[in-house]
Amino acid sequence: MTENNNIVQDDIASSRALAVDIADIIAETPAADTKVIDIHQVSTVADVFVICSGDNERQLRAIYRSVIDEMGEKGIEPKRTEGETTSGWMLIDYGDVVVHIFDKDLRTFYDLEGRWESAPILLSIL
Length: 126
Fold this sequence. Notes:
By secondary structure, the chain is of the alpha+beta class. It has 4 helices and 6 strands.
């Protein structure tokens, strides 16, 4: 049982590290209010969410392209992506780490931070 627990803890640590790497990439974009939220104890959807906002379609596209391109350079490809810049929401699914890129209105509407308020925030970049 201890070996399985260690494997799970290693997986969570890897997910956290990947999410922080993604947040570092996002920090170099026009994104605002980036949060890394550890949801592994309250959800089976993923281990970690990375959430950020952009002011317009151009910014959303720049954030999305930066994450996809820089993670790709590291050999890490998303399992899937969803959304369009015109919709105001884009999702990049890296398995245990899910990136949400919102325009400010949709971020407020969906309020992921509020929905997962019991989950600890690992990193916040304003």
